[in-house]
């Protein structure tokens, strides 16, 4: 385990040396600042228009507006966390292979599985705290402005972290098999296909098409990132908004029903299997 933690520490040092962490944090601070400024400006705009009409915003309308603003912010946070999980991990193993440094690492008394597991742990310890801090900044920053806090925010964050963990693990598997560029292209396409599959499933639910619904269900088991976001979005909405969306069936970006416990367990087992496959593939690979 000591060797695994050593590799994880070097993964952190490599990210810092490339100024990746600093660049991401600076860009994130800019995003959070613009988001909170926009939230404040939009809320004041609603209030000014209502005042110009000589009335106040209805309480429920204001609640829905505030919840929608939080949903938009968390949707972007989930997207940023997903991209970070993919693009910080695409070179975790393939970068060492492409540069030839793997030849100087593996002859040392470290097993191949320890090397891959250390890379996984190092990048995971970079991505997950980032997502937690970003989510907290958005939710509690928006609460300070609007007074709205999602009913079960930590349930939502937990599902977002599970999604990022799966994408990071799948990216690590690709990095043990493919070149850095190929891994990035393949993983971004898979992520996009998962998102598109969710849209197709929503259209199937709206139109009553069993074929489209089946496509959405299959894609959610292959690439569960979009379904996990929908499950997370349920905990970010007030009950009244969820009921309206459930009747309308018209929003392809949020969910209205909590995910089944079995599905969440499946994603956890799926992630472990992908990690074990990455360990096995790298152990069998010749250099």
| Largest beta-sheet details | none
Please compute the radius of gyration using only Cα atoms.
21 Å
Mean pLDDT: 82
Uncertain regions: pLDDT < 50 for 5+ in a row? none
Mass-distribution shape: globular
N- and C-termini, Cα separation: 25 Å
| Helix and strand element order | HHHHHHHHHHHH
Kindly state the number of beta strands: 0
Quickly give the structural class: mainly alpha
- Number of structural domains: 1
Total helical elements: 12
Helix content: over 70%
Strand content: under 5%
Question: What order do the helices and strands come in, and which of them pair?
Answer:
Elements lengths: L1 H16 L2 H33 L6 H29 L6 H6 L2 H4 L6 H35 L6 H25 L2 H28 L2 H13 L2 H10 L4 H10 L12 H24 L3
Helix pairs in contact: 1-6, 2-6, 3-6, 3-7, 6-7, 6-12, 7-8, 7-10, 7-12, 8-9
Give a description of the structure.
The protein contains twelve helices and no strands. It has 287 residues and is an all-alpha fold. Helix 3 packs antiparallel against helix 6 and helix 3 runs parallel beside helix 7. The protein has one domain.
List descriptors:
287 residues; 12 helices; mainly alpha
How would you concisely characterize the structure shown here?
The chain is built from 12 helices and no strands. It is mostly helical and 287 residues long. The longest helix is centred in the middle third of the chain and has 35 residues, at 112-146.
């Amino acid at each position: 385990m000591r060797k695994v933690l050593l590799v994880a520490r070097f993964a952190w040092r490599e990210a810092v040396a490339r100024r990746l962490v600093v660049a991401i944090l600076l860009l994130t601070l800019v995003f959070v600042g613009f988001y909170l400024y926009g939230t404040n400006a939009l809320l004041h705009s609603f209030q000014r228009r209502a005042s110009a009409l000589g009335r106040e915003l209805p309480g429920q309308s204001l609640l829905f507006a505030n919840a929608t603003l939080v949903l938009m912010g968390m949707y972007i946070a989930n997207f940023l966390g997903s991209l970070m999980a993919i693009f910080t991990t695409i070179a975790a193993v393939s970068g060492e292979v492409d540069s030839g440094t793997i030849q100087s690492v593996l002859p040392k008394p470290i097993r191949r599985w320890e090397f891959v597991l250390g890379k996984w742990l190092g990048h995971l310890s970079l991505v997950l705290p980032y997502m937690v801090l970003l989510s907290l900044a958005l939710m509690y920053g928006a609460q300070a402005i609007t007074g709205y806090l999602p009913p079960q925010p930590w349930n939502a964050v937990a599902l977002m972290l599970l999604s990022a963990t799966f994408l990071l693990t799948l990216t690590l598997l690709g990095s043990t098999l493919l070149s850095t560029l190929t891994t990035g292209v393949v993983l971004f396409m898979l992520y996009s296909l998962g998102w598109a599959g969710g849209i197709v499933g929503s259209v199937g639910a709206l139109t009553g098409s069993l074929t489209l619904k089946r496509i959405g269900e299959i894609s959610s088991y292959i690439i569960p990132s979009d379904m996990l976001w929908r499950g997370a979005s349920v905990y970010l909405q007030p009950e009244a908004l969820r009921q309206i969306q459930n009747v309308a069936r018209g929003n392809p970006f949020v969910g209205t029903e909590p995910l089944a416990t079995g599905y969440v367990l499946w994603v956890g087992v799926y992630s472990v299997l992908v990690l074990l496959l990455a360990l096995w593939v790298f152990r069998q690979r010749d250099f």
